Amino acid sequence: DQQVKQNSPSLSVQEGRISILNCDYTNSMFDYFLWYKKYPAEGPTFLISISSIKDKNEDGRFTVFLNKSAKHLSLHIVPSQPGDSAVYFCAASGKKETSGSRLTFGEGTQLTVNP
Amino acid sequence: NAGVMQNPRHLVRRRGQEARLRCSPMKGHSHVYWYRQLPEEGLKFMVYLQKENIIDESGMPKERFSAEFPKEGPSILRIQQVVRGDSAAYFCASSPLYYASGPNTGELFFGEGSRLTVL
Question: How high is the pLDDT of residue A100?
Answer without folding.
Answer: 62
